[in-house]
Design a protein that fits this description.
This protein is mainly alpha-helical. Helices cover 45% and strands 9% of the residues. The protein has helices spanning 58-85, 97-100, 105-123, 149-157, 169-186, 214-232, 238-254, and strands at 16-17, 40-42, 45-46, 51-52, 192-195, 203-206, 209-213. A 3-stranded mixed β-sheet has the order 5-7-6. α1 packs antiparallel against α3 and α3 packs across α4 (149-157).
Length: 255
């Protein structure tokens, strides 16, 4: 997905829309009044306080465009490049396989899992995970429990685009342990096999575990991303927009 030049703006806090750069890789023409340079929120895009995201007009379209570009740069174009680089060594070839084999299934799924975490984080407010306030431990219970990342991940897997593939707790939790945790922590899957064009559904039982169609999985993630962008453009989705602003604020503060 290619974004128009008009989206090359950024968000200073999640409430602000930023000014565009003159060109890719070029510095801003105008020096911000602050001592420190504004944070980067995407390649060639700096954050700068400007028009607030407190109405339904242009600033929201620009901020969503920055987010879309950020996701494309960091995830979608990278996954697409891996898909294109697949040499499909399981098919017949007269070229030396040892020299050309590129089997990106694990890499694709690693990026897909990071993408799922990112998209779910934009849609679920951190404040909704647990209460706020100072921790009273050891005199009392800790009021800031660790985020339930497994639960958040499973929520995303149960979105409509996955067509009920992870509706069963057994399958969803197995995916988290065997694919998401397995690849990201041990560089291997546990009781899961990752295939390009099979099975016919996103997930099917395979022996004592499961088979995953990584192409269909990626397509489902892309569909959910498009649905999220559509919902963000709708001013009626105020809660979703507030969570978006909260997440972008965090990104800008850490950049």
């Amino acid at each position: 997905m290619i974004l128009p030049d008009a989206t090359r703006r950024a968000v200073a806090t999640a409430e602000d829309v930023l000014e565009p750069r003159v060109g890719e890789g070029e510095p801003l023409k105008r020096t911000p009044p602050q001592d420190a340079a504004p944070p980067w929120v995407g390649r060639g895009v700096r954050a700068r306080a400007g028009r607030r995201l407190d109405h339904d007009g242009g600033p929201w379209a620009e901020a969503i465009g920055v987010f879309e570009r950020r996701m494309n740069e960091r995830f979608f174009t990278c996954i697409d490049a891996l898909v294109e680089a697949d040499t499909k060594p399981d098919s017949k070839s007269t070229v030396s396989q040892r020299e050309i084999d590129r089997i990106p299934g694990f890499s694709i799924m690693a990026l897909c899992c990071l993408l799922v975490e990112t998209l779910q984080g934009f849609q679920e407010s951190a404040t909704s995970i647990g209460p706020s306030g100072p921790c009273t431990y050891p005199k009392g219970s800790c009021v800031k429990p660790s985020p339930d990342t497994t639960g958040q991940f499973i929520k995303f897997l149960r979105r409509p685009a996955f067509r009920g593939a992870f509706a069963e707790d057994k399958i969803a939790k197995s995916f988290v342990r065997g694919v998401r945790n397995g690849i990201l922590h041990e560089a291997e899957t546990r009781k899961w096999v990752i295939w390009r064009e099979e099975p016919r559904e996103i997930v099917e039982p395979q022996g004592h575990g499961y088979a995953l169609n990584r192409t269909m999985f990626y397509e489902a993630v892309k569909q959910e991303f498009e649905l999220y962008l559509r919902d963000l453009h709708d001013p009626a989705n105020r809660k979703l927009r507030e969570t978006f602003k909260e997440k972008m604020n965090g990104i800008c503060k850490k950049s």
